[in-house]
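hey so u asked for the seq, here:
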Amino acid sequence: MAIDIERLKQDFFELSEIGKNPEDRGLYRTAFSAADMEGRAWLRRKLEALGLAVRMDGAANVFGRLAAEDEATKTLLVGSHLDTVPCAGALDGSLGVLVALECLRTLKERGTDGYTRHLELVAFSDEEGRFGGMFGSEAVVGAVTPETLEYYSDLEGCTLAEAMTRCGMNPLEALDARLEAEQIDAYLELHIEQGPVLDRLRKSVGIVENITGLFKWLIKIRGTANHAGTTPMEMREDAFMGLADFAHEIPRILEENGAESSRATIGRAQILPGAPNTVPGLVELTIDVRDTSKAVLEDLGQAFHRALSAIARRRKLMFDYEIQSEIEPTECHGEIIEVLEEEAQSLGLDYLKMSSGAAHDAQIMAQLTRIGMIFVPSREGKSHSPAEWTAWSDIEAGANLCLRAIDRMARSAKT
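ran it, structure tokens below
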């Protein structure tokens, strides 16, 4: 039993043209854009052609269901997301959906006699966080509120509700997208690693043991804007120097309060008023902090807060911060890890058990059900870029592992 790699390639080439910019070759299927909705329509046509029961819920999540004989049984969900960051590669998220499509197609052709679980593909919406979270999977686990719809906005100030309305959707219907835990047996997701580990170790697949948690802060450091020529250095309240001191503290804080899996990144900074001859009076910056341990994340948060307080006192500045997002670290389910290991061994795959340094829909779905994740290598660790790529041989290996795991889990009421 194996997937048809040529058929998977054809699906890949078709989907990768939707939202492509011919100038930079990047994909622009940001959540609730016209290209994103076109991609969802493409997937629905593929699922309907396969003869599955197809639906799109109020959060724009697309489902394709291959039913078992017993309608009362639970469902095994398999999938990922279709939306992208701006100027993205063609594999992040999409590969997991395409592999799920090919797996269900292969199993339907072979026959599903003896299955004790429904199989259902899911393509979540807005995993990349255009509106600050993982909206589609959050809606499925019941974490979306009316406030989410009205107050979550993108970098241009467009709210989630406005974006959905422009797509012809009723935003409030997202509140009905919730699934009940007793309906779902497990969730399985294949994804590119988005890092260099598998590629450098020349491993065909990764079996994920845990997924990093994170917090993101928007920090504002306030000083006093003043003339660059007339304000003596010792009399300045320079907000940028506060940023410089804080950035310099990151390695020390990670060394003293973090762990091997800890990461901290200042990804964006804005200096105001931004004039060459003016001492900066305000700096706005973001910091993204990640680790696989909840306790370590808490220690890091306290340490960064202490550092900001000390810098503000020393430089005569003020600061405040807004928590933009928080996601707890998540463990993949032991029984699913065991299934993946045994099936990888039976396929003769050279695999690695590993952590995920990126957040995924699986992390949100863990609030509802058991989860498992399969990684395939990212060439040179590149992702969120048109240079993102995975060898077809590794894609085929990961897809066949996914296929074997689905088949086994769908036949067993225990796993």
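The CA atoms of residues 127 and 134 lie 4 Å apart. The longest strand covers residues 213-222.
lmk if thats what u needed
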